[in-house]
């Protein structure tokens, strides 16, 4: 049940492979029609909707000649290049029959880690949404290498939700919500209807995928929810195929799990979200207890004189991890000096002209559950 009075206008809907395809590696027309009708129901009611759709590999592997979902990267990429086209063809045709235009956006992680490309994707999506188009987003599977992948579309959906300042993230899966333990292992697992904070117990309960086509399992859905929460976006996790699940989800009455932050929770602004989730930190700095006190307790800038050790190589403007004297990670921030400049000694006066890390570019690990950043 959604308790807050927050107005929902812009919604990101993530649809997992199993919610779109049959067990035999083909698009399920019945499932897709049902989903398209539900998205149209939201559009007709005035919601702006962006869809993050998985299913490219699952929809294409059979036509590639594989009997089951392939595991090698080239075969997955080849399957995706078949399946993605088929998926888009179906989405376009179904939405057009209801008077809506669909568009395709394929992105890679490097499109998000490059600030200019990040802005471009954002501007493109905003134009599409403002004009009533339904963007269908997926990872550009055919060109990404494992090391540089988002990896799963759950976290991609949460990052897209943050990118376009969505009000609500709906994750549709083959299960009707988050259970207090993995239902594949425990038949007595109970559905959690409302979650306000991702606790270690929840992380523990979230297991891997139970299906032959899903990839992320509940683990990646919880990672996604953490990203959405940090951006101030509430989420819902429910089962695709249930009647009016999307409309009921935005109305707060659907069966499933609602992830809703406490009203006084801190949120990251756009620039901090980029630092936290997209940048890819390039090095580390260890700071003094004086610096720690300044940036964490007093919310002040950090100066060169507070930096005790520089680890790795980075240019000025890079995002770095900030550690305390004992090596505990305090957070991430944008550094205004290169590693070489920091290693040079300067006079006191020069050191304090430009802060090493301005407080507004600091993302505190104690305030936000920062997911592992690759
Ligand atoms: N605590 C849990 N609660 C619910 N489902 C869980 C949990 N832990 C693991 N799972 C598994 O995660 C699956 C959903 O993830 P996944 O198969 O990747 O779906 P999708 O293809 O929709 O992304 C569920 O069907 C279930 O088997
Ligand atoms: N980009 C991949 C999806 C990967 C993925 O996250 O799948 P799922 O766990 O079903 O949401 C594809 O389209 O096949």
Any overview of this molecule?
The protein has 13 helices and 13 strands. The chain has 374 residues and is an alpha/beta fold. An 8-stranded mixed β-sheet has the order 3-4-2-1-5-7-8-6, with helices on both faces. The radius of gyration is 22 Å and the shape is globular. It has helices spanning 29-44, 56-64, 73-96, 109-113, 115-130, 153-163, 200-205, 217-230, 245-251, 270-278, 289-297, 339-343, 348-351, and strands at residues 10-15, 48-53, 102-107, 134-139, 168-173, 194-195, 234-239, 257-259, 283-287, 307-311, 319-323, 329-335, 357-364. Helices cover 36% and strands 19% of the residues. The chain has 2 domains: 10-270, 3-Layer(aba) Sandwich (Carbamate kinase), CATH 3.40.1160; 281-364, Archaeosine Trna-guanine Transglycosylase, Chain: A, domain 4 (Roll), CATH 2.30.130. The two termini are 34 Å apart. The relative contact order is 0.12. The model has no long low-confidence stretch (mean pLDDT 89). The structure holds adenosine-5'-diphosphate and the ligand N[C@@H](CCC(=O)OP(=O)(O)O)C(=O)O. Adenosine-5'-diphosphate binds next to α8.
Count of distinct strands: 13
Nearest-integer average pLDDT:
89
Low-confidence spans: none
The radius of gyration is 22 Å
Query: What ligand molecules are bound, each kind once?
Result: adenosine-5'-diphosphate, ligand VHF
Strand line-up of the largest beta sheet = 3-4-2-1-5-7-8-6
The H/E string reads EHEHHEHHEHEEHHEHEHEHEEEHHE
**Backbone shape:** globular
How much β-strand is present in the residues?
15-25%
Class by alpha and beta content: alpha/beta
Oligomer: single chain
The figure for the number of domains is 2
Q: Helix amount, in percent?
A: 25-40%
- CATH fold type of the largest domain: Carbamate kinase
Number of helices: 13
Q: In whole angstroms, how far apart are the ends?
A: 34 Å
CATH class of the largest domain: Alpha Beta
Quick one: biggest sheet? 8 strands, mixed
CATH architecture of the largest domain: 3-Layer(aba) Sandwich
């Amino acid at each position: 049940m959604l308790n807050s009075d927050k107005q929902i206008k812009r919604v990101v809907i993530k649809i997992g492979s199993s919610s779109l395809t049959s067990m035999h590696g083909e698009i399920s027309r019945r499932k897709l029609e049902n989903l398209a009708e539900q998205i149209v129901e939201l559009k007709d009611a005035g919601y702006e909707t962006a869809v993050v759709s998985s299913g490219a590999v699952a929809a294409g592997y059979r036509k590639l000649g594989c009997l089951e979902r392939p595991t090698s990267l080239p075969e997955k990429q080849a399957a995706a290049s078949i399946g993605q086209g088929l998926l888009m063809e179906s989405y376009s045709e179904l939405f057009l029959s209801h008077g809506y235009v669909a568009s395709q956006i394929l992105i890679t992680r490097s499109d998000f880690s490059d600030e200019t490309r990040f802005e471009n994707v954002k501007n493109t999506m905003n134009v599409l949404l403002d004009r009533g188009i339904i963007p269908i987003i997926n990872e550009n599977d055919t060109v990404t290498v494992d090391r540089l992948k988002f990896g799963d579309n759950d976290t991609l959906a949460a990052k897209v939700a943050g990118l376009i300042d969505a009000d609500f993230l709906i994750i549709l899966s083959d299960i009707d919500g988050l259970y207090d333990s993995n239902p594949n292992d425990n038949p007595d697992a109970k559905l959690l209807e409302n979650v306000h904070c991702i606790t270690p117990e929840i992380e523990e309960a979230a297991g891997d995928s139970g299906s032959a086509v899903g990839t992320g399992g509940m683990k990646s859905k919880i990672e996604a929810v953490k990203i959405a929460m940090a951006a101030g976006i509430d989420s819902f996790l429910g089962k695709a195929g249930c009647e009016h699940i999307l409309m009921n989800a935005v109305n707060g009455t659907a069966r499933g799990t609602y992830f809703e932050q406490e009203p006084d929770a801190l949120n990251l602004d756009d620039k901090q979200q980029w630092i936290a989730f997209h940048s890819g930190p390039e090095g580390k700095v260890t700071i003094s207890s004086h610096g720690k006190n300044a940036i964490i307790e007093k919310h002040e800038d950090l100066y060169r004189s507070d930096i005790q050790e520089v680890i790795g190589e980075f240019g000025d403007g890079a995002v770095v991890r900030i550690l305390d004297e004992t090596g505990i990670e305090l957070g991430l921030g944008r550094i205004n000096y290169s590693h070489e400049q920091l290693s040079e000694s300067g006079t006191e006066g020069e050191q304090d002209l430009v802060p090493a890390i301005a407080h507004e570019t600091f993302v505190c690990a104690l305030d936000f559950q920062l997911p592992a950043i690759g």
